[in-house]
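Practice problem: Methyltransferase domain-containing protein
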Amino acid sequence: MLNEREIESCYLGQFIPVHYHHNMLMDQNRMHSFKSAIFHAVKPGAKVLELGGGTGVLSFFAAQQADKVYCVEFNPDMVREARRFLAMNPNGHKVEVVHADAFDYLPPEPVDIVICEMIHVGMLREKQVAVIEAFKQRYLARFGGPLPLFMPEAVIMAVQPLQQEYDFEGFHAPIVQFQPTNVIAPGSVELAQPAVYSILDFSAPVDSLIAWEGQFLIEKGGCLNALRFITKNVLSIIESRGTTIDWLNHYMMLPLARPLEVQAGDVVQVSFAYRAGGSIPSLEASIRADLAVPAQAAPVLQEPLRVHDAAFA
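Answer key — structure tokens:
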């Protein structure tokens, strides 16, 4: 019989099929970004811990310079898969694949870097925030400070009003949709600029409650029937160059329960709240979008912070 946490893990995706992890290996954007960040952050002789190792590929990247890597994975199928792959690759012997729950695991020695790639758009579904915050408490109690460096170091999240197409060969279905970030989506019309609604810095305590209320100045008229959620993961900060190595999740479009007709110049008030690691429906249920000021009476708003201009401080 599965216990409560195992049941929740199945629901949240920790036991997703093996082939899904294989597909992640074919995501060149994800792979290249993490490889670059790990090669920058992991110094020769380092000790590294990966929480939620999957196929073991990120631990493999770390092992090219680290002395020791602990790769923790809860799914027994993925434990076997990671051990099999690591045995085929150079320096795989440096990686110890540990079959354990990332909520409870603590390495037998202090580590320099903790990699935790449990990342879903908007920090939903997967329990990255809860896992990292619990780990910090256990680590400080056992080893004292300082804490290791976490990868990603930070997450920047933004939201954008859309007119989204929901016609599928004549079948109308307002569904949750995901889009690659490097392609033009003709079914998505941007009605206003994106605005940053949350920045999580893993070097500091992170609150699992994510709540936001803000206004958008509509730039293009249409039917506001969806919100696009954008999640940029700051994998590594290169202080010497003042740059970062980032990974942008696929965009997530959530349909609005009550579409809103808007015109250029309208001011729209949007709010939502959810827990990191919560379900997508929990976020959907919290979304409110209302016309705050019609175009004829709208004052000039300060331009919202654009996600591509957002600088992590």
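Discussion: Confidence is low (pLDDT under 50) at residues 4-13, 305-313. Students who identified this feature from the tokens alone can consider the problem solved.
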